[in-house]
Every structure is written in structure tokens, then in C-alpha cells.
Amino acid sequence: MDLFITSKLWNTFHRPDLVRGALLKTLEQLNVDYLDLYLIHWPQAYKEGGELFPTDESGKIQFSDVDYLDTWKALEPLQKEGLVKSLGVSNFNSKQLARLLQSATVKPVTNQVECHPYLNQSRLKSFCAQHDIVITAYSPLGSPDRPWAKPGDPQLLEDEKLKAIADRLGKTVAQVLIRYQIDRGNIVIPKSVTKSRIASNFEVFDFKLSKEDLDLINSFDCNGRLVPMTASLGHKYHPFENDEF
């Protein structure tokens, strides 16, 4: 069985002189010679050092002002060397992508973003399609196990309209949500550590959603972002602070 291996460059390694070392460390840890895909995890950089979430005495995240354009320039030679087959980004808004495209010599192949019926990313998807960038949908099931969830938060897997579609098709709500992304032309990466659920997540290729089903599910969009990255609010490259898409 072939594996497609993706990893990400974390926020504390954006400084150009740290990029190569971060990638080489990942290759060493995975015991591979190259990655199929390497992503900038977030556009905003954190203070360089040992902590993944460096904080000051008050507990506030310490930022770095490294420009993601400079980070990308440091990644491009690594792709040309064959250490990574393709490069991409994650959590970039359309303005950040447009800015990157103006200077990049290697175009990002994907933008991995939170995407589900409550945040269907239709505007960002349209922008990416214009530039041959594929959306990769993370949290497609609504991140039900996110530790910062609050009582009363909507639960996609409990949505009665989705349950009705799933019951009619003889599928689970999770399978409908995964198929929703496939039918929209997105890559979809549901998270699971349970063997039975992983197997169930693959049982999505024997049906398709009708146009009526897709239109109904699309209508659920309410800009319901579940991964707002509030710890980075105030950073000049925070992708969601001003409701950008």
C-alpha cells in the first residue's frame, strides 16, 4: 500500500534559517527521505525557541514578525531538491494567498482549512479554484472532541437535517459529511484513531449526494468557525481576525 505523507511547518520555525532544519527533523522522525506534501501550518509566526506556544509572564503568546513570504521563499529550494514533492499552505485567507501567489515561483497546490457545512468556505473555494489550488477540508465532522468546546455549541453529528439525509441513504452522518466534501471536489481528512471508524470513513464511495442534498447542506453555512485560533489574535498575519475569507 502506498502512503501519501504530509507534514507541516510549525509557527516557531518560520524564520528562513530554521526552515530546512525543521523539515530535516521531520524527515528523520518519520524515517523517510522526502514528503509528498509540506504545508505552512499557519500564516502567523511565533517567537523562535523551544516552546511550540511561547508565552510571556501573563500567558500571552509571543509573536514573531517573520513574513510568510520569506518562509515560502525558504521552502521553494527544498521542493526543487526533492525533499518535498509539493508545497502548500494551511489556514491562509484569500488575501494572503493572493499576496503569496504574486511572489512565489512554486505555487501552493492546496490550502488546508477548516471546512464543514457550518463553515463551507464557498468564497475561499471559488478563489482557490481560480488559481488551481485545491481545498483540503479539516474538521469535516465539526471537531466534536475539541477541548475548547462550550456547552450548547452546535454539534454537526447531531444535526437533525443531516440525520434525515443519512437515514434515507442508509449511511452515518459522518459518512454524509465526508461525501459532502468529496462531491464538492475537496480533499477531506477526517480525524480518527479508532480502527472501526477509520474503516467506516472509507465507506463513502458507493453513493453520491444529490444536487438537492448538496444545496440543503450548503444552506447550513453560518460562518461557524470552530477553530478560531484566538491565541493568535492581534498578530498582523492572523487569517481570521477581520472576517477575511
From TrEMBL:
Keyword annotations: NADP, Oxidoreductase
Presence of keyword NADP: yes
InterPro entries attached to this UniProt entry: AKR (IPR020471), Aldo/ket_reductase_CS (IPR018170), NAD(P)_OxRdtase_dom_sf (IPR036812), NADP_OxRdtase_dom (IPR023210)
Annotated substrate binding sites: 41
Site (Lowers pKa of active site Tyr): 8
Domain NADP-dependent oxidoreductase, chain residue ranges per copy: 2-220
Domain of life: Eukaryota
GO molecular function: oxidoreductase activity
Pfam families for this protein: Aldo_ket_red
Family: Belongs to the aldo/keto reductase family.
Name by which UniProt lists this protein: Aldose reductase
